[in-house]
Amino acid sequence: MQKLIEGLHHFQQNVFGTQQELFERLSKGQTPDALFITCSDSRINPNLLTQTEPGELFILRNAGNLIPPYSAHTGGEAATIEFAVDGLSVKDIIICGHSHCGAMDGLMNPEGIRNFPALNRWLSHAEATRRIVHDLYADLTPEERLNVAILENVLAQMENLRTHPSVAAGLAKGSVRIHGWVYKFQSGEIFSYDPESAQFVHLTVQRSDNPGIGRQRLDIVSI
C-alpha cells in the first residue's frame, strides 16, 4: 500500500502539473475513441499497450474478458456497453484476450478453481468456448488447448457482444465496428482476428471484424 501512496504523491507533485490542460479538459466531459474490453489480469495495461492518454479509451475489465449475452437480468457489462455506444458514441469496440490467461486455464481445468464458486459461475459465460475447444481441438496438447481457448474465447465473446441491442443497432447502421485481439505478454505482439481468412494474424493494418465469424478450426498461434 505504501508504494501506491508514494505513487499518488509523485503523480500530484510531478505529473499532474505538466498535464493540467489535459485534465482540465477532461473535467468537462469525455469523448473516448473506443471501448476496450479486456481481462482483469494485472499484467495488461490498455493505455500502455495502445499508447493512449486518459480520456481516449473507455475500459471494461473482468476475469476472462467475458461479455454475458444480453438478457433481462443486465449487469455491469451490459450497462457499460450501452453507455459506451449510445451515450459516448464510440465507433470501435475491441475485445482483447491475452496469453497465459488464468481464467481460460480455469475454464479448461475446472479442478484448479473448485474452491472459487463465484469464479466458476462467472466462467459459465465462456461455456461455448470450452465446448468448441473440447469438440474441435481434442488432439492438441494441454498447452496448445489453452492457447486456442484464449483465441476461441475472443470469438465467442464477440458473438455475445452482438446480442446487445446498442451494438446490434450500431452494426446495422455501420456506426460501430468490432475487433478481436489477443495480446502476447512475452513479445508485445498483438494478433487480430481477420474475418477473410477466419484466422488470427499479426496486427499490422486496420481491420474491420464485422463479418460473421466462421467456426472453422483456427491455426495454432503460439501465445
Features:
single chain, 223 residues, alpha/beta, Beta-carbonic Anhydrase, Chain A, six-stranded mixed β-sheet, 9 helices, 6 strands, 40% helix
Rounded to the nearest angstrom, the distance between the terminal CA atoms is: 32 Å
Radius of gyration: 18 Å
Using the coordinates above, name the CATH class: Alpha Beta
Determine the CATH topology.
Beta-carbonic Anhydrase, Chain A
Q: Tell me about the biggest sheet?
A: 6 strands, mixed
- Taken together, the total number of domains comes to 1
Order of helices and strands: HHEHEHEHHHHHEEE
Query: Which parts are unreliable, with pLDDT below 50 for 5 consecutive residues or more?
Result: none
Q: Name the beta content range.
A: 15-25%
Total beta strands: 6
The backbone outline, from C-alpha atoms, is globular
Q: Total helix count?
A: 9
Q: Largest beta sheet: what is the strand line-up?
A: 2-1-3-4-5-6
CATH superfamily: Carbonic anhydrase
Mean pLDDT: 92
Tell me the CATH architecture: 3-Layer(aba) Sandwich
Helical coverage, percent range: 40-55%
The structural class is: alpha/beta
Description:
The structure is a single chain. This protein has nine helices and six strands; from the N terminus they run ααβαβαβαααααβββ. The chain has one domain: Beta-carbonic Anhydrase, Chain A. The longest helix is centred in the last third of the chain and has 20 residues. α4 runs parallel beside α9 and α7 crosses α8. With 223 residues, it is an alpha/beta fold. A six-stranded mixed β-sheet has the order 2-1-3-4-5-6, with helices on one face. α3 links the parallel β1 and β2. It is globular and about 55 Å long.
